[in-house]
Hints:
Blueprint: H1 6-13, H2 18-24, H3 29-35, H4 38-50, E1 57-63, H5 70-73, E2 80-85, E3 97-102, E4 111-117, E5 120-127, E6 131-139, E7 144-147, E8 158-167, E9 172-182, E10 190-199, E11 204-208, E12 217-219, E13 225-227, E14 230-237, E15 247-254, E16 259-263, E17 277-281, E18 284-290, E19 297-304, E20 310-318, E21 325-331, E22 337-343, E23 348-355, E24 360-368, E25 372-378
Antiparallel strand pairs: 1-2, 1-25, 2-3, 4-5, 5-6, 6-7, 8-9, 9-10, 10-11, 12-14, 13-14, 14-15, 15-16, 17-18, 18-19, 19-20, 21-22, 22-23, 23-24
Amino acid sequence: MSDLSDEIMVEILARLPAKSLVRFNLVCKQWRSLISHPHFVRKHLHHVLLDQSNNHNKLIIHPTPLFPPSFISCRPFTVNFYSIDYFYEESLNSSTSTTKRQFPLQTPRGLRILGSCNGLLLVGYYNSKYGYDALVLWNPSLREYNTLPECSSISGFKIRMLGFGYDSALDDYKVVRVTTNSTYDEPMRIVEQRVEIYSLKANSWKTIQGGIPYGNVCIEQLRGTLVSGSIYWVVTDADYEEEQEFNNLILAFDLIDEKFRLVGVPRHDDREPVSGSLVEVRGCLGLYQTQPESRDVEIWMLKKNENKNEYWTKLMIIPKDCGMYSRPAFFMKNNEVLMSTAMCKEDKILLVVYNPVNMTFCNLPCVITDWWEEIIYVETLVSPHGIGG
């Protein structure tokens, strides 16, 4: 390697997986300085995001047992996550590997994965009364974490929405937090709300004046879905004074201009609105709904026409053959869909790959008996303390 120019060496190293580069940190001081430099971290991230092979994408799973260890002992306990590799072959009908990743902090309560962006995970310490006691940014590849500073809290306010993403204009990572207060008689009726944003660059929180500018919005979803610089949540708009019915909506927050906007939901042929959960579909916002009778999973995708006007199109319908309760986790570039599904009769959760061309299912060799939550992340060198640490 000594005969190679620095530029060629950088280009070669920037195309390697993050886990290899973490090991290379131990080779010599020169490589450690190079690999941890912000310019190299950005170059590596650029190659990761452009990679068409999906080799850098991992599914991280957090088992969520009904009765965690602290339920009985009330003592802090260790939480394990599981990183699953499944993109190394063109076809997912090959073997997968699972790596246990221990969360670096013990917790007296449960944890939740609240967001994923460029290799960083937003993890929250769950508190049943007010939402979350602490928020942590964690890069499982680097095994580094950063506990975020506490933001201002007001008695009676509860965290209703959380989101995490990247502001490309400021080269900054942001956490969005919405807290609300409600009346005792009408817990769904919001009396006051606060919108706060954490900046990793500034390592501080700020409050957005005016909150959500759309009247009486009822929060239906805690964890936001990050798509192309915006975070999306499922909400409903209910006017209690006029006793109108709930109206399904999608609330979007742009991380650059830090403003909210509303997105309409798709409608069936009978004009009934589609109600479901959000997911990213190959760089676009997607919405999936389980049909109440057939249990088929209907997937919609939000696209833009040549005039940049948004419209919904039905992408596919996944039959219920893979399980009683299924949700899509990731849409591959080969159009296959990775799904987590509950097999109620067998009392276990499976990972299943659906091929929409052949309309076939393939069970992956990864079975976790506990209920879980999952999210896609990419292996990068981005530090939870800043781009290069």
